[in-house]
Structure formats: structure tokens, C-alpha cells
């Protein structure tokens, strides 16, 4: 049973890393579930501090993941229409049947939002859309680093409790 839970925990960690790069999967929550499954192994003492602090951080990272691209649009001079376009483009891009729609969607959404409603010109619209793209890249990098930290902690735990496995 321990090996099954350990394997499930590892799979959740790896799915979390994949989810940090693919917006269709919730990366940080999957990695957190991997830690939770690991602590459900009977021989491993449950660490409430780690579980609840990591849950809090996971929630913060998940909220930031949806707000950073919109803030990037705003920082680069985008209007509320560009921010709405970024958010709509992100959702549409996830489900669009085009390759890398989740990357292209926020950029195109911000660009269309600025072009259609603010009419300040193509240069301004491209600048706001670039902010959206940079925000998307920043949030993806943040999620990737966070899930890699979870994987590092998982490896540390496995090594720490190696007497259980071998």
C-alpha cells in the first residue's frame, strides 16, 4: 500500500509540473495533492504546518496565475478592455483547437480588446498585448518554480524516510 501511495504522489507531482506549463491542468494544486497523498502514508508522520502553509501558498499562486497576465496588460498601458480581452483570450485559448492557443489567446484577446474599444492605434494595442504575453510568461515561470520546489521537497521526504522503503 505504501508503494501505491508513493507512486500516486509521484504521478501527482509530475502532473503538477506539466500543469505549470499547460494551462488546462492546475499545476500547483496537483503538486499539493501529491504532498497530501505522501503524508497519508501510515508510516510517515503527518506534518500539519507543512500541509496548511503549502495549501495557503498554493492558493496564492493559483490566484496570481490568473491576475498576473491582466496586470501585465495594465502595466504596459492597457485599458480595462485590454484586461478583459486578456482574460477572455486566456479562457478561449485553452479550449481553442489551435496549437498553443493558451499562449496566443491572451495576446490576441488584449490586442482585440484595445483595438476594438480604445482605438488608440495599433502601436498602443501591440504594447498592451505584449504586456499580456509577458505577464503570461511570468506567471508560467512562477508556477513552474513553485511546482519544482514541491518536487524537491517530495524527493527530500522520500530520502528522509528511506528506512521505510528499503
Automatic annotation (TrEMBL):
Top-level division of the source organism's lineage: Bacteria
Keywords annotated in UniProt: Membrane, Transmembrane, Transmembrane helix
Q: Signal peptide position in this chain?
A: none
Q: Which residues cross the membrane?
A: 48-68, 88-113, 133-159
Q: Write one Pfam family the protein is assigned to.
A: DUF456
Tell me what this protein is called.
Answer: DUF456 domain-containing protein
Question: Whose protein is this, by species?
Answer: Flavobacterium agricola
Amino acid at each position: 500500500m505504501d508503494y501505491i501511495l508513493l507512486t500516486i504522489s509521484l504521478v501527482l507531482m509530475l502532473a503538477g509540473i506539466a500543469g505549470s506549463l499547460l494551462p488546462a491542468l492546475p499545476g500547483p494544486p496537483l503538486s499539493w495533492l501529491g504532498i497530501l497523498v505522501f503524508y497519508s502514508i501510515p508510516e510517515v508522520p503527518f506534518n500539519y504546518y507543512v500541509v496548511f502553509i503549502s495549501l495557503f501558498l498554493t492558493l496564492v499562486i493559483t490566484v496570481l496565475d490568473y491576475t498576473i497576465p491582466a496586470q501585465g496588460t495594465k502595466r504596459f498601458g492597457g485599458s480595462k478592455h485590454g484586461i478583459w480581452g486578456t482574460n477572455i483570450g486566456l479562457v478561449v485559448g485553452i479550449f481553442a483547437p489551435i496549437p498553443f492557443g493558451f499562449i496566443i489567446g491572451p495576446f490576441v484577446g488584449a490586442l482585440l480588446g484595445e483595438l476594438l474599444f480604445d482605438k488608440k492605434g495599433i502601436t498602443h494595442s501591440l504594447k498592451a498585448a505584449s504586456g499580456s504575453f509577458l505577464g503570461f510568461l511570468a506567471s508560467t515561470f512562477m508556477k513552474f518554480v513553485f511546482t519544482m520546489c514541491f518536487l524537491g521537497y517530495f524527493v527530500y521526504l522520500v530520502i528522509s524516510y528511506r528506512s521505510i522503503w528499503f
